Each structure stands twice: as structure tokens, then as C-alpha cells.
Amino acid sequence: MENEFIYNTSIIWENDRIGEISGPGLPNVKVATPPEFPEGIAGYWSPEHMFTASANICLMTTFLAIAKNSSFNFFAYSSDAEGKLEKIDGRFMMSEITLKPVIKVKSESDIEKGIRLIEKAEHNCLISNSMKTKIILIPEVTI
Length: 143
Description:
Blueprint: E1 10-15, E2 18-22, E3 29-32, H1 47-69, E4 76-88, E5 91-104, H2 111-124, H3 126-130, E6 134-137, E7 140-142
Helix pairs in contact: 1-2
């Protein structure tokens, strides 16, 4: 496996505070300033949403790889994420992201292993490790 990868994106402004992001071989997504800011527009993905989502997506994909490599059997995975934007030292920043994964297993004996693996996934998530944002993990593994 290589040690370096490049990911390309492009954005085109459409009107007002709306643009469209694209990447080679990927579906386009309309993006905008969030409604909490002046002239922001509801109903579009914002940088703040995508920043929060990137930590949530990375947790899932890292967990899936670790679970497969560990022969861990589960039958459902879902996760909610909440990104906190706040003004610190006069500047807005995403100060924390709370990740709440729910993993469903068939046996009570799998619960402890599921907790260990999701914690390992969070520890090894390359996106979270690239952020200065505090990551809070609140996992739930249930039968």
C-alpha cells in the first residue's frame, strides 16, 4: 500500500451563497453558507456539516476495516454526529465533535469486543487524527 494519496475536489459558485462541489467520478453536491451566518441558506450541506460528517464517515469506515480484520460479527451499524461550532479567542472554530455509533450484535459475548473495536477505530481514524477538534466518542453496542 502506498504512503501518499491525493484527493481532488472542485467548487463552482452558482449564486448567492450557493456553490456545487465535485470530484472525479463522484456525484456533485450543492453546498452553501449555513443559515446561522448572514445570508446563509438552509437546506444545503455546509462546510460545518461536511467537517462533522467527515469524522463520522471515517469512524464508520475505520470500524468496518477493523471489524473485518478482527472477524467481528455484527449486523447493523449507525452513527449520529454533532459538531460544535463556537467562537474561541475571537474566531469561530469547530471545537468538538461528538460521535455516537450504535453497533448491533447477536450475542451478549460480542458487546465488550464491539466496544474495544469502536474505540480502536476512533483512535486510528485518520480524519479525526488530522483535526485539532476534540473528538468525543459515546458508543453503544447492543443485542
